[in-house]
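EI: anyone free to look at a 386-residue chain?
SC: sure, send it
EI:
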Amino acid sequence: MKYIYNKRFANTIILSVIILCACNSTKHPQKVIQQSPSNILQIINTVNQYWQQNTPTNVRAFWDHATYHTANIEVYKLTQNNSYKQYSEDWAKYNQWMGATATNKDSWKYSYGEKPEFVLFGDWQTCFQVYIDLYRIDSAAVKVERAKEVINYQISTSKNDYWWWADGLYMVMPVMVKMYHLNGNKMYLDKLYEYYSYANSIMYDSTEQIYYRDAKYIYPKHKTTTGKKDFWARGNGWVFAALAKVLQELPKDDVHRNEYISKFKGMAYSLKKYQQAEGYWTRSIADTAHAPGYETSGTAFFTYAYLWGMNNGFLSKKEFEPIVSKSWDYLTKIALQPSGKIGYVQPIGERAIPGQIVDKNATANFGVGAFLLAACEMYRFAEKKR
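SC: here you go
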């Protein structure tokens, strides 16, 4: 009996070990996205209606408002809700289909500036993305006249340093590709690459494969409070999203296409290393102690670009769906408030600021835009999984 007992005991131990190993192998299963398209569409409408019901259209055509409208156009494409299109039309008409309004080309500038003469400053050109998209829906020439005037002048100059800050890549890179599709002039694509190459030369970290916000923040000249490289989340969100938007419309035979793809994939792999357990990225990506806590705008732009990459075959679903599953959870369970308000958006700025309060009441037009871009791509992702 003793022998039989011990044999049974040994078998029990072996079985327990097998079960334990099996449990350990699935202890941290890769999360997958399980939300239905109808649920995502409800979220999109709740967020967009909340914003439009609480925000007038008679505001200037600067980058922050324009970023929201780049997303509102995507929502319109998805829903075909004419009230959404009309909201952007009303904003565009209020601004006379212009960005900065100076007419004397001799006065045009492209350093930072919010006055009418800063026509060549990219923050005043984001609106052209929206105007061109609205022109594609209803091709009234007035919608793109100013965009053509400004960009045609810009590409006729010998300067290549127009995009000297990371944000500028989102503001204008998509404009250049859209301009190409207006008339097929390859010079827009040539200048796109020329300007992008300059931007890479001053703020791209080839080791990390992500971007500093601008030349002021290059390591080791600038460091976080603990001495690390300081990569701003929203700054990298602008670039990651910009590359997605460019690849969406870039001709497949463009000679620089592979470089854009390489940069896009490099960012995808680098950024995933820094995602927090709750799904968000901290404001200073590589140093969570520098400015800890939730942040929505960078996280939403990352989510948009990851989803676009998976939806269009540039990124592996097996590898990146778990990343997006977590970031979507953050966006919809923490950032999204019951009213439809999007919280935890870092205010306008250019870096992660230690001690800055970013709470559930912190919202902004560009943050809502980033959320909606991500949500539209999430809807498309969910539709493909049905």
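EI: Confidence is low (pLDDT under 50) at residues 1-28.
SC: 👍
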